[in-house]
Structures are given as structure tokens and as C-alpha cells.
């Protein structure tokens, strides 16, 4: 794949490696070479898998610390909003109002998705969090579709195909579309679920820039399929996963690039960095 002059400059400046599919540059830059804030059009954070209430875990302390880290991100470079991408609590719906009181401490708006440990029917979920299982919203010329990947008993399921199609159609004229869904729709992880019809819809969506997944606590990087990029973000809490608890930052730049990097906040370390061009 030929490298454009613009891409070559980025490779040279950032020490990146061109992966060659779907206009993606991968850099492992643990320094502070981030674009100036004036070049950012939109900035948000994605975190997942809090598992509030899981026995034998320090779930309250884990949430308090994560909220402090995310609020520090807002103070340093700004955040338009946050996504908490599923498994808000651990199996017991009685924890729902408690964990919401924690997330309400964020200094920016936040959105949630329904995870497989969020055992709740859709009516109770919407009553608790203010959104149904599938929904979308806009931020300027950018759009977001949030999809459901579990039923009320925790069974893994594919997103509702018709609701997914409606959301993608609704936002197909926006400059960029981002999808947030707890379980990845490709069986490339132990806990993934193959959803070929949903993946086909994604592949047909020209403005779909990235898909953000949680669920797999041991995943914190990017996977590519048919030119679409699926990002993971480690975990907030729970009893397993990467050896750190982290989150993913997404910076949409005014020049049209999307910079996203995974953070290990306890070490103030960028674990990996990817630019979609």
C-alpha cells in the first residue's frame, strides 16, 4: 500500500508503523506528543466493565479512583462526554442506583450501554439510566449509535438488526459515526459473538469511523475487519483482565483525523496510540 506524503510525515514525526488497512497508523508513543488542544474538534473517553458489587473486589474504591482519573482528563485537555460501555454493576440490579450515584460525580455528561452483567429488562434499564437499549445522539456533525448485546438474563446476543439499521440510516449523512456496543460482533476473542449481519451493515456504512467494545477485560488495543476498526479499553473493575485498569481517549481533530489512545492512568502511561486518517 502506497504511503501518502501526509502519512509519511506522520510516520516520521511519531515513529509510527503503517498497518496498511483502512487508513490506520499505529504508534506506541509514551511521551507527551499530543496535538495542541486548539486542534481538537471533539474529545471523549470510553471505559467499560465496572462490575460494581462483584464479591471479593474493591469495587467502590475502583469506581472512585476511575472517576477521579476521568475528571482529571477533563481538567487537563477537556472532555465533551464519557461512555461507560456496559457491565455497570455485577448481576444484581439493586446496585444500579448506587453505581449511578458514583458516575454522577463525573464533571461531564456521560452515556451508558447495557452489558451482559447488567441483568435488567429494557423498561427498568431505561427508568434507571434514561436511555433504552438502543439509541443514538449527535454532537455537531458527529453521530453516535449505542447498541445492545445482552438480554435481561445476561445471555450474549447480537444487536437488534432493524434498530441497528435505523440508527445507521439516521446518521449516514454526518461527517463521522461512532458505534458503542459492549460485546464485539466478531468472534476473534474468547468472549466475542459472531454477528455477521451487523458486521455487514457496518461495512456498508461509509461514515462509520470506529466501533468501541468492552466485555473482554484482557483486550486494550485495536482489531480490524474489512477496513473497519474495533477498539477495546481494558476494564474499570472486576476480578480479571489486563494487569492495569484503564480507559480509552478519543480525540477527533479538526483536520479529520481521529487519534485514540489507551491509558494506564495509575502509571500516567499511554499503552498504545492509533490514528485513523
Report on this model:
The protein has 277 residues and is of the alpha/beta class. It contains 6 helices and 14 strands. It has helices spanning 5-14, 59-77, 96-103, 122-129, 161-170, 196-204; strands at 17-18, 24-27, 40-47, 81-85, 110-113, 135-139, 142-147, 176-181, 208-212, 222-225, 228-231, 247-253, 258-264, 269-276. Strand 4, helix 3 (96-103) and strand 5 (110-113) form a beta-alpha-beta unit. It is globular. It starts with a helix and ends with a strand.
Order of helices and strands: HEEEHEHEHEEHEHEEEEEE
Largest sheet: 8 strands, mixed
Strand content: 25-35%
> What shape does the CA trace take?
globular
Q: What's the topology here?
A:
Elements: H1 5-14, E1 17-18, E2 24-27, E3 40-47, H2 59-77, E4 81-85, H3 96-103, E5 110-113, H4 122-129, E6 135-139, E7 142-147, H5 161-170, E8 176-181, H6 196-204, E9 208-212, E10 222-225, E11 228-231, E12 247-253, E13 258-264, E14 269-276
Parallel strand pairs: 3-4, 4-5, 7-8, 8-9, 9-11
Antiparallel strand pairs: 1-2, 2-14, 3-12, 6-7, 10-11, 12-13, 13-14
Helix pairs in contact: 5-6
